[in-house]
Amino acid sequence: MNKITLTEKSKVAASLLERIHELHNPEETVRFMEVCGTHTVAIFREGIRQMLPKGIELISGPGCPVCVTDQQYMDQALAYAAREDVVIATFGDMLKIPGTTGNLWQSKENGAHIEIIYSPMEVLGLSEQYPDKKIIFLGIGFETTIAVIAATIQAVHAKGLKNVFFLISHKLVPPALRALLSNPDHQIDGFLLPGHVSVIIGEQPYQFLADEYHMPSCIAGFDGVEILAAIVNLLEQRKEKKFYVGNTYRSVVAKTGNSVAQQLMDTLYEPSDDGWRGIGVLPASGLKLRGEWSAYDALVQLPLGTFTTSDGPKGCQCGSVIQGMIHPDACPLFGKLCTPEHPVGACMVSVEGSCSAWYKYGFSSGGMTWEE
Ligand code: SF4
Description:
The protein is an alpha/beta fold. About 40% of the residues lie in helices and about 20% in strands. The chain is built from 16 helices and 11 strands. The strands form 2 sheets. It has a 6-stranded mixed beta sheet with strand order 4-3-5-6-11-10, with helices on both faces. The protein has a 5-stranded parallel beta sheet with strand order 2-1-7-8-9. The radius of gyration is 21 Å and the shape is globular. The model has no long low-confidence stretch (mean pLDDT about 90). Iron/sulfur cluster binds near residues 321, 345 and 348.
């Protein structure tokens, strides 16, 4: 396949921008939410906010897994880390998420056995390396990651390993979108839907946005041109008042998603209510291991008893940021007490967190890349 050149790409971007100007009514303000943290970063990196006409505002949503993982989950992880018979296996970002009594970095410095891994499958090696310990993997993430973790649990099962467990807090995107729209104060006029998650679930799970809420939505890729094409699609839906699930990422996202991954998830998990940071418990917005697979559920097999927990860091506005009610710089702690080096809230931890992205691309340049 021939690669598109930079000049050709610029021409495509220019014609998309022209179309955006044609479609946009300068008298009105529209707010499109990018659901996915990777989109948030791509929008900053490609300078998309600065290209759009005044009156089209992009707001960040609940698509960064680290941001939405709630305080109680982190407090459970801290409680497990304090046990001498446990090895915590996790991705590096998780160590900086604040819990009520500290974070996992501090636990590690204080002697907790925490292994930073790069693939969930590494738990198989840890199981053999530490046969007398209980290996607990911190399994967070959306549909994309859920399938990978499900494959890991199957591999653990196939090998007959008895000392590997999973502390699960999986999140599902469609119920979160429904929860956002059920807030009567929401200010969302359309969704840029996440590319990676949609690879797994396809288009159909978003259909309720059009049918029940008359809300434009479009699955988008991560290139600047793909994001602009999705914005064109959202504006066209608004103008024609014909609402459907657009898809400008067809090269990767099939209409029905990935049936193998969906089947794997259905085999291992069942829907459950789940807590979202700053939002609360949303019905059927998470998954738990079903039936015999609960043999790998840390909370079922290694009950914690009582542990210290709270609602979250004082003053942190992550809940409002995640719901697109405020931009991160409206949080009084932003850039002062809360920075990527010293995050107060979860949205400042991951590079894909809204607060972290706003800090990196806006605060450090004196706000030059923020939308005014
Ligand atoms: Fe929370 Fe920090 Fe973001 Fe404020 S700036 S909402 S404290 S993560």
